[in-house]
Specification:
The structure holds two protein chains of two kinds. Chain A is α+β, with helices and mostly antiparallel strands. Chain A contains 20 helices and twelve strands. The radius of gyration of chain A is 28 Å and the shape is globular. Chain B is mainly alpha-helical. Chain B has two domains: 61 residues, no CATH class; 59 residues. The chains are: A alpha+beta, B mainly alpha. The interface between A and B is large, with 70 and 51 residues.
């Protein structure tokens, strides 16, 4: 099976080279036969990489420890679903997974556009194949997941195959149900950003820099953006449940690596609307999507090269030089392409007024990029500082919080302001009309919160802005619904649904904005977190706020995979029983690592989060840590709303469907006439 | 005081987490560091003195945030500087666009306003694709 995997990858590498050459040459020369052949090569390398993935999964499930990757990432007693998840649990496997997702995207883009007669698609697939080729080169030459273990024997010159009795096991922190879905979702979003990039570069190569490429990538970008956002929050959920430190975001370099392209992609999703409506910002949009792509590759480099310290980075590896070279070459080529096509990227309109939707988007972009730069700068600063001073420094969560909280709040403010500004020019009268009620409602809400004891500048501002943005979204829906009810005599719920249905993109966007408000409510809850720690034995109590936990039992046990110690705690709130909580500490045999399994009681107001922190060896008492985290549930609720909004925005409008039908009919006619 | 001090320091096991929140199982770095802080607090040491002791022992890498001195000051200044530069560029382009708009003859606008033009262009581009 290892040979089969190796052969598949080597053949895929060859076919990817062929696909790149034939698709780019076919596009430049207009030879349809070359393009067709290149597209077939894409299907072939996709099938070959799929075979390699299936082969590796088989080796993982059957515990073939002769394969170095299998021995380093699994052990016999691991459940099958974690053995399958081990595909993305280690360096070589996750790189193969990256390649496979990209090849899948390339095959889908090729298949979906197989009848489109434009040079954009083959050029874009050629660019995607180029990125696939880079990752395949890593799979084949640097981090081959099918490498076999071998060891020297006395008296023999050559090394002989070797298989240990058992593997080292998957990192216990990764043995969590969320980790079965978080990496695939994150990768789908992360790798999906290659699709809009490929179309942007294809547009530059073919000089087809009208709005065609923008139209083609709109849904791809939204899908990738939505999945990346969902993946990031799922990662937060995993950290919250598995790392056991009471939070969900630690500004870890690996977390930052996924956030940065999401920020630039969000900026792109906004500024591209200006290009669609006004034919402006063409250079800017191409630059944003290139930046997103380079940040995706850079993020992959950060995670895998060992260049920065992180709780969940992969092992130190030599592949850093591959990435640095690729980023330098790809970045250089992109800059050259943009400069050489500047005459095709000229704006066809000018800004009419500073107070307009267009300039609102520009400010939004500035702040998104500012936030992205702050995250990037904080992430790489230890490396820069060490290179200059020769002394390593740390840039931890307090730095990122200090810089990004005000930036985030300003973005939240723009989320409310942007939709209230009119295209071209907003008159002072319109400004007053649009802002008066939302701002008044927000000020009243802030006054009430202050009067009820909510203190602190940032929390108050955050809540005020959350109310303001919600009010602006409500006003937008209210006006639209009222207009429909008056014009068509519709009932409220019909008017609501049809309003969204008639302009899914706009109202899907508002739903996403509302989701951001909910997520910010959850973030703001961090300002009121409380915690305590205590040592208990059976019969002891420990309390925090209105909660009291009584230790009923402490029990030790063993499964084939790990030993554990659990505390059974009966909880009461204001004296009322609320069931038992069972925090657990595990120690995994194969990897010799421990983990915390958090016990959680969550409601809309707060999370009671209990951690079995360890055992005091001096007195044999259990160390229990309790966190009271207000409003966390809103982060997860906001994420679900964000997915709903993204799906609504992705769905085609009735007008789009009609245009697509006409286009397909025209293309059929064209092909029929060519045959005649 | 323990929380304030341990929030200013980073665990040295390589996890890059704030010392107070690192909860690695029997962490060889966080546990002794936290014990040391507790000892120093009991001995009556001041907050800044405890932090300084840790910096002397481990180097600047133990601090959770860069100091505001020398090269490390750049960590704090650069994000603001970049945003200001971006704002400056943005204002430059916006004023340039507005100036261009003013010198353009209004004749074309009298025939079709730009909103209608963009809608027509939008429709045409959709049909093109």
């Amino acid at each position: 099976m290892a040979n089969f995997g190796n052969l598949s990858l080597t053949l895929a590498f060859t076919f990817a080279i062929y696909a790149v050459i034939s698709l780019i040459t076919g596009t430049k020369t207009g030879r349809r036969d070359l393009i067709k052949s290149g597209e077939n090569a894409v299907y072939v390398y996709f099938a070959l990489i799929t075979s390699a993935v299936v082969g590796l999964l088989y080796l993982l499930v059957t515990s073939n420890f002769q394969i170095e990757y299998v021995a380093s990432i699994t052990n016999r007693d691991m459940p099958v679903y974690y053995k399958l998840a081990a595909l993305w649990g280690g360096q070589a496997g996750s790189l193969l997974f990256w390649t496979w997702i990209l090849a899948t995207y390339a095959a889908i883009v090729t298949f979906r556009n197989r009848q489109r007669r434009t040079n954009l698609v083959p050029a874009a697939v050629g660019i995607m194949s180029m990125t696939t080729l880079f990752f395949l080169s890593l799979n084949v030459f640097a981090e081959n997941p099918f490498s076999e273990l071998a060891m020297s024997h006395a008296g023999l010159e050559e090394q002989l195959p070797f298989a240990p009795a058992d593997g080292r096991g998957l990192n216990p922190l990764l043995q969590h149900p969320v980790m079965v879905i978080h990496p695939p979702i994150l990768y789908l979003g992360y790798v999906g950003m290659v699709v809009p990039f490929a179309f942007a570069i294809a547009a530059l190569i073919t000089r087809e820099l009208g709005n065609a490429w923008i139209t083609l990538i709109r849904r791809w970008t939204l899908i990738a953006w939505g999945l990346l956002g969902f993946g990031i929050i799922l990662g937060g959920k995993w950290a919250y449940m598995e790392l056991g430190w009471g939070g969900y975001w630690a500004w870890d370099p690996v977390e930052n690596a996924s956030l940065m392209p999401w920020l630039t992609a969000t900026a792109f999703l906004h500024s591209v609307i200006v290009q669609e409506k006004k034919n402006m910002l063409k250079v800017w949009n191409v630059t944003l999507i290139i930046a997103t792509y380079l940040l995706v590759i850079f993020g992959t480099f950060l995670t895998r090269s060992g260049v920065v310290s992180s709780v969940h980075a992969f092992a130190q590896s030599s592949i850093g030089s591959f990435f640095v070279s690729y980023i330098a070459i790809a970045g250089g080529l992109c800059v050259w392409l943009v400069f050489s096509r500047l005459e095709y990227l000229k704006s066809e309109n000018e800004l009419d007024s500073v107070v307009s939707r267009e300039s609102g988007f520009l400010f939004n972009n500035l702040v998104f990029l500012g936030a992205c730069f702050a995250v990037l700068w904080g992430t790489v600063f230890p490396v820069i500082s060490e290179a200059i001073q020769g002394e390593k420094i740390s840039v931890g969560a307090p730095f990122f919080n200090k810089i990004n909280i005000p930036v985030g709040l300003f973005l939240l403010f723009l989320t409310g302001v942007g939709p209230l500004l009119a295209w071209r020019k907003t008159s002072p009268r319109s400004l007053k009309k649009n802002f008066l009620w939302p701002m008044a409602v927000a000020m009243v809400a802030a006054a009430i919160l202050f009067a009820t004891g909510v203190s602190g500048f940032y929390p108050l501002v955050s809540f005020l802005l959350c109310v303001f943005v919600t009010a602006t979204i409500f006003v937008e829906f209210f006006r639209g619904i009222r207009a429909r009810m008056r014009a068509h005599g519709e009932m409220l719920h019909h008017a609501f649904l049809r309003l969204i249905g008639k302009n899914k993109r706009r109202y899907g966007g508002y739903i996403v904005h509302f989701a951001i408000v909910l997520i910010f409510i959850g973030f703001t809850g961090n300002a009121f977190n409380r915690e305590t720690k205590g040592e208990v034995t059976e019969g002891d109590t420990i309390s925090l706020g209105a909660y009291e936990l009584r230790c009923e039992q402490i029990e030790e046990g063993e499964t084939p995979n790990y030993t554990y110690i659990v505390a059974t705690l009966s909880a009461t709130k204001n004296g009322k029983p609320m069931g038992t909580l069972v925090p657990e500490k595990r120690f995994y045999h194969a990897s010799e690592q421990g983990t915390s399994e958090v016990a959680l009681r969550s409601n809309l107001a707060e999370d009671l989060y209990v951690v079995f922190a360890g055992v005091n060896e001096d007195n044999n008492r259990a160390v229990i840590q309790i966190f009271l985290n207000p409003l966390v549930a809103w982060v997860w609720i906001g994420t679900i709303v964000m997915i709903v909004g993204t799906v609504v925005a992705i769905l085609p409008d009735g007008r789009d469907v009609r245009i697509q039908r006409r286009k397909r009919a025209l293309e059929k006619l064209l092909r029929a006439s060519e045959k005649i | 005081m323990f929380n304030r001090v341990s929030d200013k320091l980073v665990c040295q096991c390589g996890c890059n987490m704030i010392l107070r929140v690192c909860n690695h199982f029997e962490c060889p770095s966080a546990l002794p560091m936290r014990a040391e802080i507790e000892e120093k607090i009991l001995a009556g040491a001041a907050e800044d003195a405890i932090v300084t002791d840790f910096v002397e022992e481990h180097g600047k890498v133990v601090l959770a945030t860069p100091s505001a001195k020398g090269i490390d000051l750049a960590a704090w200044v650069m994000p603001g500087f970049v945003v200001l530069m971006g704002l400056f560029l943005l204002l430059y382009f916006v004023s340039d666009w507005l100036a261009k708009k003013k010198v353009k003859p209004a004749a074309s606008q009298q025939q079709l306003d730009s909103g209608t033009m963009s809608r027509i262009e939008d429709e045409l581009s959709r049909l093109d694709t």
